[in-house]
Amino acid sequence: MQYVSTRAAASAASSSPSNFSDILLGGLAADGGLFLPTAYPQVSGAELDAWRKLSYADLAYEVLRKFATDIPEADLRALTAKTYTKEVYRNARAGEKASQITPLRVLEEGDGRKLVLQALSNGPTLAFKDMAMQLLGNLFEYTLAKSGAQLNIFGATSGDTGSAAEYAMRGKKGIRVFMLSPHKKMSAFQSAQMFSLQDPNIFNIAVEGVFDDCQDMVKAVSNDLPFKAAQKIGTVNSINWARVVAQVVYYFRGYLAATSSNVEKVSFTVPSGNFGNICAGHIARMMGLPIAKLVAATNENDVLDEFFRTGVYRVRKSAETYHTSSPSMDISKASNFERFIYDLVGRDGERTRALFHKVETQGGFDLSGKPGSDGDEFKKVAQYGFQSGKSTHKDRLDTIRDVADDYGITIDTHTADGIKVAREHIEKGVTMIVLETALAAKFNETILDALGVDAERPAGFENIEDLPQKFVVMSTDVEKMKAYIASHTGL
Ligand SMILES: *Cc1c(COP(=O)(O)O)cnc(C)c1O
Question: For the chain, how far is it from start to end, CA to CA, in angstroms?
Answer without folding.
Answer: 34
